[in-house]
Amino acid sequence: MATAVPRLRVHHPPGSEQVVLIEKETFNIGRRPDNDLVVAEKDISRLQAVICREGTHFILEDRGSTFGTFVNRLPATRQRLRNRDVISLGRDQRIEMTFLQEDRMSQILEEVESRRRPDTTPDDYRNLSILLELSKGFNTMTSLQDMLELALDAVIDVTHAERGFIMLRDEEGTLTMRASRNPDRGEPGPGQPRLSRSIVDEVVASGEPRFLTDVNEDPKVKGRPSIEELSLRWVVCLPLKVLPAEQVTRPSRLPDKADLFGVIYADSSHAGAPLSPVTRDLIQSIATHAIFALENFFLRQEDLERRLVEREMEREMERLREIDRLKTEFVSNVSHELRTPLTAIKGSVDNMLDGLTGSVNERQRHYLTRVNENAEQLSRLIADLLDLARIESGQVEVRPRSTSVSRLLEGAAESMRPVLDRRGISLKVELPRDDLVIVADRDRLMQVLFNLIGNAVKFTSPGGAVTLDARLMADEVVVSVSDTGVGIPERDLERIFDRFYQAPAAQGAKPTGTGLGLPIARSLVELHGGRLWAERAEVGSRFHFTLPVGAAPRAGTGPAEGAQS
Predict the structure, then answer these.
(1) Closest among 360, 300, 324, 315 to 143, alpha carbons compared
(2) 134: burial class by Cβ within 10 Å (0-12, 13-18, 19+)?
(3) Contact partners, residue 216, CB within 8 Å, separation at least 6
(4) 280 by DSSP, 3-state: which?
(5) Is 323 left (phi over 0), alpha (psi -120 to 50) or beta?
(6) Residue 400, preceding peptide bond in cis (omega within 30° of 0)
(7) Strand 37-38 relative to strand 26-30: parallel, antiparallel, unpaired?
(8) How far apart are alpha carbons 438 and 426 in whole angstroms?
(9) Strand pairing class (95-100; 175-181)
(10) Per-residue model confidence (pLDDT) at position 45
(11) CA distance 239 to 70
């Protein structure tokens, strides 16, 4: 390419253009004859402006000119120049020049001009028109096969070959035939059409094109079996190379490591005239345009497939949401329907146990007690199902108010202590030294603590212990429930918060409960902006949940729970 020396494209006099290289460290512009750029106009000062190099940058400085110096129509006293900045001079700014630095288009134009040769023929210009129309064709095609055949036809027509092939790598990296023209000329071999495989292998190995316009002139090629069997005199083979994967977004269907994706091959049984440099450039440009078209095609296909998958996933998610809504609605309706007859059953059993229907012997009392216990368990299950349905449907209302953490823990311990006493499990409460105040729904947090303490009791043997404690960490209160039970396997620390999942009990005993307490507890904590998680301890397990620390009660919220009035 052209040198990177900056230049000025000067449009003066109007209608003309000249290019002046800026080769000095200080480049002077003005009316004076010894300036580097002389602008012989009365509006221009003797020394109008200078362009100075500062490192890799160029600075334009006005030297006190009469009518000023402008860059992009704005007055400029001292300004760093950027590529394509327009410098204008004179009373009406009618003298213009464009600053060019590392300007790619200018370099391309200079390269084209430098390649102009006196022996350029109309056919050469025709070839350039072919390349332009080929690019348009690639951009409008939606079929991979059409693209391959268009690229192949272009190479065959430009080179006047008798037949041609395009081979692409498959998923295993093997070159396979994807497009062909006149493949059965001569004696076709079994399977794929015959071609000079040795030439193809050389191009694949080197990544460079081969132009053999007369194989008789190349003794290394002349005696090859495929050349003699097919009576070949003329062979052209071009690599289809993609940019390295670290430089571009490469379609997944292209090889991850290999930069050569395939080859375009053409041959003839007649020797051809030597290919002109312009024609060779055209053939290589056809190969380059073909690989870009293939990359764009595969990227479009992958984008289309991705959007189809996303659309299908969205439809599936919508279907699952609807199923989940119907399930929640069903659970809520069934739970409500069960609650009424269950209340009647439980009330009747209580009346019988109280002797309202007459005396009850020990055998009857035993069975009635079992019925009552199972009714209580079923009632808890229905309550859990209703809570879960309300949470999932967003119908749970949180009524926050200032709450004392110490009073919260003491209240939960007092309510649950009889349950632990019956199981022979001790309950210890470790209160913070300074009482902490949070803004939360006390009833919902009591429900969380009941679930966590009840879960600890379920997995702790008689003689064990359950501990409640709270502490301040940064801007959160961390409440913990620890036990000395069997502990939770590492693999189950997150699964226990799944609906209906129950961790194994001690010594392989069958788990009890509904498997809903922990999911409900986590949901209620999250409604307060906190987190709930479990971890293994040296003995037993620990559950922790966080709650944001509340500010002093606002007007109308009332005093903290348990505070003195």
Answers:
(1) 300
(2) buried
(3) 222, 233, 271
(4) helix
(5) alpha
(6) no
(7) parallel
(8) 27
(9) unpaired
(10) 94
(11) 51
The gap between the terminal CA atoms of the chain, to the nearest Å, is 88
Structure tokens, 198: 């040795």
**DSSP run (H or E) holding 374:** helix 362-392
Cβ burial of 181 (10 Å; 0-12, 13-18, 19+) is middle
- pLDDT tens-digit map of 95-121: 999 998 877 777 766 766 666 666 666
What Å distances lie between residue 57 and 19, 51, 103, 434, CA to CA? Answer: 20, 10, 14, 66
Question: What are 315's two structure tokens?
Answer: 């439809």
Residue 354, helix vs strand vs coil: coil
Q: Tokens representing 459?
A: 């997995």
Distance CA 344, CA 441 (A): 31
The Cα–Cα gap between 382 and 342 comes to 10
Answer whether 106's CB lies under 8 Å from 2's CB.
yes
Q: State which H helix or E strand residue 144 sits in.
A: helix 144-159
Indicate the SS3 state at residue 385.
helix
Given a cut of 70, the residues of the chain with pLDDT beneath it are 1-4, 108-109, 111-125, 127, 183-194, 243-258, 328, 331, 336, 393, 504-514, 550-565
* Strand order across the beta sheet in which 476-483 lies: 426-430, 465-473, 476-483, 541-548, 532-536
Neighbouring C-beta atoms of residue 235, cutoff 10 Å? 26
Q: Is the overall model pTM greater than 0.70, yes or no?
A: no
Distance CA 363, CA 414 (A): 34
Structural tokens at position 353: 């146990």
Integer-rounded Cα Rg, in Å, for the chain is 43
| DSSP reduced 3-state for 270 | coil
Sign of CA dihedral 341, 343, 344, 348: positive
Residue type, 479: V
Residues 6+ apart with CB under 8 A from 235: 196, 199, 210, 212, 215, 221, 227, 265, 266, 267
- Tokens 């309510």 belong to 415
Type of residue found at 187 = E
pLDDT the model gives residue 223:
75
The H or E element spanning position 426 is strand 426-430
Write out the two tokens for 288.
């380059």
Query: With contact defined as beta carbons under 8 Å apart, do 526 and 448 qualify?
Result: no
- CA distance linking residue 20 with residue 27, whole number of Å: 11
Measured distance CA(401)–CA(546) in Å, rounded: 17
Cβ neighbour number for residue 160 with a 10 Å cutoff: 12
Query: Other CB atoms closer than 10 Å to residue 430's CB: what's the count?
Result: 12
- Residue keyed to tokens 């990359």: 295
SS3 of residue 163 by DSSP: strand
